[in-house]
Amino acid sequence: MKLKPLGDRLIVRAIEEEEKTASGLVLPDTAKEKPQKGEVIAVGDGRYDEDGEKRIPLDVSQGDTVLYSKYGGTEIKVDGEDLLVLRESDVLAKVEN
Amino acid sequence: MKLKPLGDRLIVRAIEEEEKTASGLVLPDTAKEKPQKGEVIAVGDGRYDEDGEKRIPLDVSQGDTVLYSKYGGTEIKVDGEDLLVLRESDVLAKVEN
Amino acid sequence: MKLKPLGDRLIVRAIEEEEKTASGLVLPDTAKEKPQKGEVIAVGDGRYDEDGEKRIPLDVSQGDTVLYSKYGGTEIKVDGEDLLVLRESDVLAKVEN
Amino acid sequence: MKLKPLGDRLIVRAIEEEEKTASGLVLPDTAKEKPQKGEVIAVGDGRYDEDGEKRIPLDVSQGDTVLYSKYGGTEIKVDGEDLLVLRESDVLAKVEN
Amino acid sequence: MKLKPLGDRLIVRAIEEEEKTASGLVLPDTAKEKPQKGEVIAVGDGRYDEDGEKRIPLDVSQGDTVLYSKYGGTEIKVDGEDLLVLRESDVLAKVEN
Amino acid sequence: MKLKPLGDRLIVRAIEEEEKTASGLVLPDTAKEKPQKGEVIAVGDGRYDEDGEKRIPLDVSQGDTVLYSKYGGTEIKVDGEDLLVLRESDVLAKVEN
Amino acid sequence: MKLKPLGDRLIVRAIEEEEKTASGLVLPDTAKEKPQKGEVIAVGDGRYDEDGEKRIPLDVSQGDTVLYSKYGGTEIKVDGEDLLVLRESDVLAKVEN
Predict the structure, then answer these.
(1) What would the 3-class secondary structure string for E47-72 be?
(2) pLDDT at D5
(3) What Gene Ontology cellular-component terms does the record carry (chains A, B, C, D, E, F, G) (predicted)?
(4) C interface toward B at CB cutoff 8 Å?
(5) How many Å apart are CA E46 and CA D89, to the nearest integer?
(6) pLDDT in tens, chain D (97 residues)
(7) Chain E interface, mutation test: which of F34, F36, F67, most E Cβ atoms within 10 Å?
(8) Cα–Cα distance, C11 to C4 (Å, whole number)
(9) Pair G69, F76: CB distance under 8 Å
(10) Higher model confidence: residue D86 or residue B24?
């Protein structure tokens, strides 16, 4: 199922990072914080400006890695996979290589 | 009864997906989450821009399949059928084929 | 008493629909939900745009049948009849014939 | 004391209507609802538009009879008389003759 | 100490009116309501419009007598005298002679 | 350490006034109200207007004495001295000499 | 990992100042207030104006030292280091040398 986010929304697939304690122990999933880094897998065309004349382009593109606020967005399940629909304002920063 | 939503509203008929547990058991209706995928059956003409000069067109059209926020919208019953009136801002994404 | 709503308001006379249970029993009035379908009996001239230069016309007209949010509006009693003053934003959809 | 309301405000003198019960009994004052019909006795010149260039004229004039929201406005006592200062947005409708 | 209010603010000196009960008894100060009539002793130059291009002039001038909302404003003590700093939106009406 | 406030902010050094009771007794510091008069020691360049084209200049300048709302602003400690960062909207009035 | 903040956001590395009590005792970390002074290590390109035509430039640049509100921003951990993502409106003042 291919999704096209509306307006200033984007869809993100969380990137879970291995988390080791100081002693090298890998923590099981439930002891970890909800991830806040993800890969952008789809972006909207931008919301309309106040005069309804043109769309304001998004600053993130498909394929970008982004940091996002842990408490923003709506969780959806697509083809058995957990994804997150965010508004661009929930994105804190892009990761540059 | 044919309905024409006002402004930036649309009317959606929920699509209930069969939901099986890992063991293949089909869950009865009350054990399932409220659906959040639906078919757009009517759309408004868009709300006026701030100057009242033209309408801002909607990004969804009749016949589209959309994902929407589970907590948005107003439930209505039309000809015995449960439908949902949403604002376009409650729509998260369109499903593309 | 003839009323002219102000700005983006309209006045609605609720349409009560006969409601029968599965067994064909007609429910007495107190057991029914508050109606959310009504006939528009008067409309305002629209609110001014942000520059105060022209009014934004309403999408509903006198004589329209509308669905409206059950929790919006202000109840008034006019010549012994219960009516409802709504803002146009409380109207969900028009019923088309 | 003559009052000139500011901006989009108006001053209203409530019109109390005789209220009889079905049996014809006139209810004493404390058993009646707070009135919501009134005569406009003064209006402001309108608030400025967003650019501060001109005022947005009011839709009600001195002498109009209006219905207004029971919970809006500020009560004032002028020369021993109870009056109400409303914003135009608290006015639901004008009564036309 | 001479004060110049900022933006859309004004400074008001409350006018206390003698209040007699029906029996002619003058009530001591603590039994009276907080005054809501005052003399304007200083006005600001108005707030800037949204484009920052010009100020929106105030509708009240120094020397005006105004009615104001009892719950608005900030009390200040200037040279031992209790004054009130209001925004113009807290002023309900001007008293005309 | 020299500070430059951002946007429509200013930095104020509170002016504590000697406060004597009627009997001439000078009250110790803890019995006094938080001061609300101060000297402006730095001002921002003003916030941008809505179109991002120019800044809206502040109405207060370095060296001004201002009255400000007791509950606004953020306390900072600079070189051991307690200062207050205010937005211009927290300033009630300028003191003129 | 290099980060590019979005819109009007910036990333700040807190500057912890040694804090001695009057007796010269250095307080351990937990007894100190959360720092509110930091170095700007990355800035966004500014948010779009209301017409979506151009970005409003930020007043802070990479390398600036800023004072910021203790309660604003979102904490992130980057390469093991605690950083803070702020909106420019959370920045109170720049430190000038």
Answers:
(1) CECCCCCCECCCCCCCCCEEEECCCC
(2) 96
(3) cytoplasm
(4) 36, 49-51, 54-56, 59-60, 67, 69, 88-89, 91-97
(5) 24
(6) 899 999 999 999 999 776 556 666 655 555 444 458 999 999 999 998 877 788 998 999 999 999 998 788 898 888 889 999 999 999 999 999 7
(7) F67
(8) 8
(9) no
(10) D86
pLDDT in tens, C43-75: 999 998 877 888 998 999 999 999 998 788 898
Chain G residues whose CB is inside 8 A of the A59 CB are 6-7, 45
Q: Binning pLDDT at 50, 70 and 90, where does residue B31 land?
A: very low
Q: In this predicted complex, what is the ipTM? A: 0.79
Domain positions in chain A: 1-15+37-97
Q: 3-class secondary structure for chain E?
A: CEEEECCCEEEEEECCCCCECCCCCECCHHHCCCCCEEEEEEECCCCECCCCCCECCCCCCCCCEEEECCCCCEEEEECCEEEEEEEHHHEEEEEEC
- The total of other beta-carbon atoms located within 10 Å of residue D34's CB is 9
Collect the ranges in chain E with pLDDT lower than 70. Answer: 18-35
User: Taking CB atoms and an 8 Å cutoff, what residues of chain G touch F3?
Assistant: 67, 93-96
Has residue A35 got a pLDDT over 70?
Answer: no
Sign of CA dihedral A44, A49, A53, A56: negative
| A18 — pLDDT class (breaks 50, 70, 90) | low
According to CATH, the topology of domain D35-97 is: 10 Kd Chaperonin, Protein Cpn10; Chain O (2.30.33)
The answer to whether domain F9-95 has CATH 2.30.33.40 is: yes
The nearest CA of chain C is from the CA of B18 a distance in Å of 27
F37: which strand partners?
F67
Residue B5: which of C55, C56, C93 has the nearest Cβ? C93
pLDDT at E39: 97
Q: F93 forms bridges with which residues in the sheet?
A: E5, F67
Q: Please, which chains are in contact with B (at least 3 CB pairs closer than 8 A)?
A: A, C
E30 φ, ψ (degrees, to nearest 5) = -70, -20
Which residues of chain G neighbour A56 with C-beta distances below 8 Å?
48, 52
Comparing CB atoms, the residue among C49, C93, C97 nearest residue B52 is C49
Contacts of A42 in chain B (CB under 8 A): 93
- What is the CATH superfamily name and number for domain C9-15+34-95? GroES chaperonin (2.30.33.40)
Quickly name the fold that domain A1-15+37-97 has.
Answer: 10 Kd Chaperonin, Protein Cpn10; Chain O (2.30.33)
Task: Select the more confidently predicted residue: F33 or A36.
Answer: A36
Paired tokens of D21: 């019960």
3-state secondary structure of A3: strand
**E4 to chain F, closest Cα gap in Å:** 5
- B71 Cβ contact partners less than 8 Å away, ≥ 6 residues apart: none
Quote the strand ranges of F8-70, DSSP E: 9-14, 37-43, 65-68
Beta-strand relationship, F91-96 and E2-5 = antiparallel
